[in-house]
Design goal:
Blueprint: E1 7-12, H1 18-29, E2 32-35, H2 36-49, H3 61-68, E3 73-76, E4 79-82, E5 85-86, H4 94-103, H5 107-121, E6 126-130, H6 133-137, E7 143-148, H7 151-164, H8 171-187, E8 200-203, H9 209-224
Parallel strand pairs: 1-6, 1-7, 2-6, 7-8
Antiparallel strand pairs: 3-4, 4-5
Helix pairs in contact: 2-4, 2-5, 4-8, 7-8
The protein binds 2'-deoxycytidine-5'-monophosphate.
Length: about 230
């Protein structure tokens, strides 16, 4: 199926399968996939390791902001990197997940990430997932999808994913973490998680990945006449 040079913005709640869906789309249409959450997670790992965020999640925003000037956070062959160090595994831990939403409320952190994303999206043919891609990062994106699913289904999916990676977790802890993140992400002052007016809702609680892809192809056909 032919698809024009567009940006596909996928936003939505935590653990709704945004990144899995975005990766499938990228593969199907030979688009570049960009995981904006990975950059927020990378900044969070950096903040934890340098003592810019405490156990109770209070943030030394001044020191963090200064340190961002020298933070070489980027995508590489095996995922997300700080300099030459691959941090892909560490950024998926519950330790990082616990602190990423507070870090993502800091305006200078958002500006740091937005700059990287806009740079990467310049050439189009990009599918990007996050919380504010269709509202703030690329408000002119040609196709915007807002993903949602029932919270327990989301917690079960995330727990299974973590278990597969060897991290032992219980459903209640995962559910609590994702509900807290949803709340913080939706209520922060800068670029809160909200559906763009022109985004199409995809509730995938009861859908397989194949069904989601079919749904998207139908949408593209209707929109772009294929
Ligand atoms: O998609 P994810 O779970 O990896 O995202 C991790 C956190 O990063 C999420 O809780 C909120 C933040 N985030 C954001 O604020 N804006 C984005 N565009 C992407 C992620």
């Amino acid at each position: 199926m032919h698809i024009p040079d567009i940006i596909i913005a996928i936003d939505g709640y935590s653990s709704t399968g945004k990144s899995s869906f975005a990766k499938i789309i990228a593969n199907e249409f030979s688009f570049l996939y960009l995981d904006s959450g990975a950059l927020y997670r990378g900044v969070t790992l950096f903040a934890i390791e340098n003592g810019f965020i405490s156990e109770d999640c209070s943030i030394d925003t001044e020191r963090l902001e200064k340190a961002l000037d020298n933070l070489d956070l980027h995508f590489g062959e095996d995922g997300t990197y700080i300099g030459t160090r691959c941090i892909e595994q560490e950024i998926r831990s519950l330790t990082v997940a616990d602190k990423v939403s507070p870090i993502a409320t800091v305006p200078s952190v958002r500006a740091f990430v937005d700059k990287k994303l806009r740079e990467a999206g310049k050439k189009k043919r990009v599918v990007m997932d996050g919380r504010d891609i269709g509202t703030t990062v690329f408000p002119d994106a040609e196709l915007k999808i807002f993903m949602t699913a029932d919270p327990l289904t989301r917690a079960e999916r995330r727990a299974a994913e973590m278990l597969a990676k060897g991290e032992k977790v219980d459903i209640e802890t995962v559910l609590k973490n994702l509900q807290e993140r949803d709340y913080i992400d939706s209520h922060r002052e800068t670029s809160p998680l909200t559906k763009a007016v022109d985004a199409i809702i995809l509730d995938n609680s009861k859908m397989t990945m194949q069904e989601q892809l079919e749904w998207l192809k139908d949408l593209i056909s209707m929109r772009f006449g294929n």
